[in-house]
Amino acid sequence: MKINENTLLEGSRIVLVPYKKHHVPKYHGWMQSSELQELTASEPLTLQQEYEMQNSWWQDQNKCTFIVLDKTSWQSAEKTEIDSMIGDVNLFFTNQESPTEAEIEIMIAEPASRRKGSGREALTTMMAYGVQELGVTEYVAKIGYSNHGSLSLFHKLGFTEVSRSDVFQEVTLHLPISNDIRTRLEQETSHISKHMYGDHSR
Fold it and tell me: Residues 6 or more apart from 84 whose CB is under 8 A from it?
């Protein structure tokens, strides 16, 4: 999705930047991990296929992706943006019968960055962005049975289980954006500042 190609969202722990070609090699390295393949239900791609995937996501008007950066690393003069990458967060519209429903995913790929609040801040920032900028009225998440960290996080944010698939070994969760949820998202992300990507990147 091109709508966020010049958008940088800065939080207290994380920074979200659009997924660009220069991020692909590190992203590709992450996705060679059998653990991440299992947690994200992904198949390994070649580097060339990863570049093609990044370009297709950028062109796809139904998919919005941000790379998650560790803010402390990002602010360090000794670290590059690539050094600061810790994961990604994305949403996509796939339900033609409900065009404002979006499926949302979060991946904190760097083990050292997990369970520190980065995933929650990245996820709530993306959720608020989807509601405010893309018109999302309900979220769906599909999470593997074994991904206990993500299941716990989504439940804490108010998602409820609607179905299970033993074939795909995943749980489907749902969250309608009520006025209360909208207000809570606005409050939890009130500290997030929005910049032009490039002004703050190195």
Answer: 15, 69, 70, 71, 73, 74
Return d(Cα 191, Cα 172) in angstroms, integer: 30
Tens digit of pLDDT at every position of the chain (202 positions): 888 999 999 999 999 999 999 999 999 999 887 777 777 767 888 999 999 999 999 999 999 999 999 999 999 999 999 999 999 999 999 888 999 999 999 999 999 999 899 999 999 999 999 999 999 999 999 999 988 989 999 999 999 999 999 999 999 999 999 999 999 999 999 999 999 997 544 4
Terminal alpha carbon distance of the chain: 22
